[in-house]
Amino acid sequence: MRRSATLAAFVKEARLLGRDPHGLALLFALPLAFILIMSLAMADLYAERAGQGVGVLVIDRDGGAQADALYARLAANQGFALTRVSEAPEDAEQRLRAGDFAFTVDIPPDYGARLGEPASAAAETPLIRVTAAADASRQIEYIFSAALREALQRQRAEIMLAR
User: What mean pLDDT is predicted for residues 11-29?
Assistant: First the structure.
């Protein structure tokens, strides 16, 4: 009984739309026009960032193999545009404020040695320092911190498995 009621309602609506060609045209034309207008309005917003990743300044004070591996893991993610320097530039904070970078990652000189330490010893002082720009969105901040945590945990797991 229920199936025939649904079929009857469908047939009724199809007949009504068949009698109203303008209504049928509007049924398809309005969503199409909405999508076209919104895509044209948002084209500039997406065009300025097309193909660009989120800017990240990596200050590598360690320069060792573990720091290179961390940089390589982060660089493998196409969502981030990494710039690597060995010393912190004086204008790093200004470049964050200006929007050149969304994050800075400061890898300390003892990064390679401290990476293999147990988590309890590493919890006293941070392994690396990350600074986010004030205008960085929360979603991008969460994505970057998750990618960074994943890269660090993989490195730690590889060290533990090597032992």
Answer: 88
